[in-house]
Each structure stands twice: as C-alpha cells, then as structure tokens.
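This part of the workshop introduces the protein records we will be handling. To make this concrete, we reproduce a full record directly below.
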Amino acid sequence: MNNSLKNTARLIGAGLRALLVLTVICGVVYPLAVTGVAQAAFGDKANGSEVESGGRVVGSELIGQRYDLPKRNPSDPEEAARPDLHWFQPRPSNGLTPNTLNTRYRLTVSGATNLSGDNDQLIQQIKDAKAAVVRDNSTPTYQVNPSAVPAEAVTSSGSGLDPDISPAYAKLQVHRVARVNGLPVAEVEKLVADHTTGRILGFMGEPRVNVLKLNIALKGLVGK
C-alpha cells in the first residue's frame, strides 16, 4: 500500500513538473520568441500593416474601407450610403452587415452575400451598381462606356474587405476625381500609375491598386 501511494505521488509530481515546464516553454518562451522575431523582421506586417497619414493611423493596407458622405439623418439606420466622389471608390461591400455580436463598438462583419449567380437580387444589385458607376464617373468631357466597367466595380469580394481595385477601375475613376478636385487629368493618371502594384514575383496574382494608399496620395496632391 505504501509503495502504491509513493508511486502515485511520484507520477503526480512528474506530471505537474512536466505541465509546469511545458507551460513555461509553450505558453511563455515560444510566444515571446515568435513575437520578438516577428517584430524584428516583419514589424510592419506583425502590427497589422497599419497605414499612417498626418501622424496618425488611418487604416490598414489589408482591409478595405468606404469613402462616403456623412448621413443626412445620422439616426436613420436605413439611410443608404452615398459615396463621396472626391475620392477613389473601393469595391462594393454588399456582404457586410452591422455588427450584432459586440454592440459597444460600431463594427462590421466580414462576409459575402452568398447569393447564387442567377439570384434575382444579386442580378439587380449588379445592374444598379453598374448604372451608378457609369453615372458617377462620367463627366462632360468623358463618358464611361458600360462595357468598360470592370467586374470588381460591381461585385463585392468573398470577404467584403478587399482593399484593392484593378488598374482598370482606378483609371475609370480618374476623370471624375480630377474634375471634382480641380486637378489636371494627367496628374491624377500619374498618381494611379505610381500606386499600381504588379504581379507578385512577376507572375502571381493580378496588378492592383490599394485604394487607401491612393487616396492618401490624392489628399496630398489636393493639398498642394
């Protein structure tokens, strides 16, 4: 009986020591080591790829955001958002819904519409979005051809948070942005060209334009 108790106590003691050692290694040492390496080698990415403007963080280059006018009636949750045409506009975000899990902060939930390609609601959304793109981006000297409207200009991404648009959609907005802000078209075209990122390693993905970075540069150009 004494031997049995001793063996049990020895096993419990060994288990507790193993638990303590593994807790320190896996719960303290390893996370600190990984965090240290990440901060030292990839500090910007480890901190969320934050983008600063005017000395403060204005967003992340990984997460899209809207550029809308203030609501006419802030207390009306049903009032439709109106795009601020001074800025380059991102992809639609029809999949996003108001945050219902954490009512302390006014957040949005990532997600897609999950509507099938032949869904009447989705078809109507795309038609309405296309008509709005043509209407908003046409100027007295530049008429948008409906056939030239890129797919991402009228459809949301799977997450609804895509931060990039295609160079084609950015160029389609150039004339409107130049006119509303009183800028030469050539300067705005150069701005888009300067903020166009090519394929990764020259062959992966598609050329893209980060809307947040482009609008920060546009703000600087307007300020001049």
In short: The chain has two domains: 1-47, 51-223.
